[in-house]
Amino acid sequence: QTTTDPVSQLQHAIYLQMNVLVQTNAKEYIRALSALAPSTAPLTQILSATLSSRVASTLTDDIAGRGALWATGLAGAGHLAAAHEYADFDITGAGLALGTQYTNNNLTIGAMYTYQRDKLTSWARTIHTPTHGGGLYAVYKNAPIILRSAANVFYTNWDEVKNVSTLHVSNNSDLYTYDVFGDIGYEFVTTNWRTTPRLGAQYTLTHRNGATDSAGQKTDSPDLHFARLYANVSVARDNWAISAVQIVPNITIGASYDMHSDADNATVFVNDTLYQINAEILSRWALNSALNARVIFSPDTELNFGAGAELRDGYVNYTFRIGGRLNF
User: Fold this and answer.
1) 122, 92 Cβ separation under 8 angstroms
2) Neighbouring residues of 267: CB distance < 8 A, sequence distance ≥ 6
3) What is the reported pTM?
4) Are 71 and 95 spatial neighbours (Cβ–Cβ below 8 Å)?
5) In angstroms, what CA-CA distances link 238 with 162, 275, 296, 305?
6) Measured between alpha carbons, how far is 264 from 281 in angstroms, rounded to an integer?
7) Rounded to whole angstroms, what are the CA distances from 135 to 95, 132, 178, 235?
8) Whether 112 contacts 72, CB under 8 Å
9) Cα–Cα distance measured from residue 150 to residue 203, given in angstroms and rounded to the nearest whole number
10) Which alpha helices (H) appear in the chain, and where do they start and end?
11) Nearest to 148 by CA among 246, 232, 255, 238
12) CA pair distance 258, 245, nearest whole angstrom
């Protein structure tokens, strides 16, 4: 019987394709089944951490003027190594952050908007994740103590295409990420150097709406909770100028530990059958580093540059940024 329903047509095409593969190419049959099911890779954890780490890289405790407007271009790249349960993934992305802040005595408060677009790719699937975000942040600096905190919300359209042999199955869902972090630093100042050890904590909650892909598979995922402790040391060089332009390089080295990480397990319902997909999480320990530089043209204008890396067992992520700030 012929049907014009797109879901039924795709289901029938998949059935015919799988029936051929199971008889002629067992390896491709298994690959097609793997692509059709939700991935067990920690992709939601990677995306939420990437979004928040890029935004966190824009936060500075170098305060000048009473008010400021700033803009930062963001970019990143990463790689998740293959495991027994999933294929390897390449991650690329870029974005823009815009913010404003106001300083009164030792306290600075600010707000920002961000747009980020990432792509996660493996042989089995390609995922595009355009994301809008907004956040508030505060910095309290009363030498030698520095307190920083921020709260961010991100909305992501999870646009996935699964490569089921020669067929393509689309899956779209909405992902909400809520992220807060805070840290305390102690600044040691000498004639030309500032050294700041810092200790902090971060909590992230992600919520994904249920979705039905173009083959009729219904997928539900639980809310995911992540809690992390981190520590680092930053060293900045002051009193270095080229002509009338002051340059302030800064290097940061640290580590973090995920105290709690939920796996993105999925419940799938298709053809009156219910089954569970158990996902993986990232390695809990991470090494973090960053190299930044401020180029100060006047008390009111500056450019800033940064590059950072996060290294875990089986996963690496790099971030880059370039921005400008106008103080008034």
Assistant:
1) no
2) 219, 220, 221, 274, 275, 276, 277
3) 0.93
4) no
5) 51, 59, 11, 16
6) 8
7) 15, 11, 10, 27
8) no
9) 11
10) 6-24, 26-36, 43-56
11) 232
12) 41
Task: In whole angstroms, give the CA distance from residue 270 to residue 215.
Answer: 9
Q: What are phi and psi of 300, to 5 degrees?
A: -110, -15
Given the DSSP bridges, would you call strands 211-212 and 218-220 parallel, antiparallel or unpaired? antiparallel
Read off the tokens for 270: 């298709």
Measured between alpha carbons, how far is 199 from 81 in angstroms, rounded to an integer?
A: 29
User: What pLDDT shows up at residue 3?
Assistant: 61
Beta strands in 49-166, from DSSP E residues, in sequence order: 67-80, 89-104, 107-121, 125-142, 145-164
Nearest to 14 by CA among 118, 122, 166: 166
Give burial (CB, 10 Å; 0-12/13-18/19+) of 38. buried
Residue bearing tokens 């875990």: 312
- What the block records as the tokens of 6 is 């797109």
Q: Cα–Cα distance between 155 and 115 in angstroms, integer?
A: 10
Residue that the structure tokens 């298994």 belong to: 30
Average pLDDT over residues 304-327: 96
The tens digit of pLDDT for each residue in 46-68 reads 999 999 999 999 998 887 668 99
2 exposed, middle or buried (CB, 10 Å; 0-12, 13-18, 19+)? Answer: exposed
Q: What does 178-228 look like in DSSP terms, one character per residue?
A: EEEEEEEEE-EE-SSEEEEEEEEEEEEEEEE--EE-TTS-EEE---EEEEE
| Calpha distance 278→39 (Å, rounded) | 9
Residues 179-196: tens digit of each pLDDT: 999 999 999 999 899 999
In the block, which residue shows the tokens 């390449």?
A: 90
Q: How far is CA 253 from CA 234, 263, 319, in A?
A: 7, 28, 15
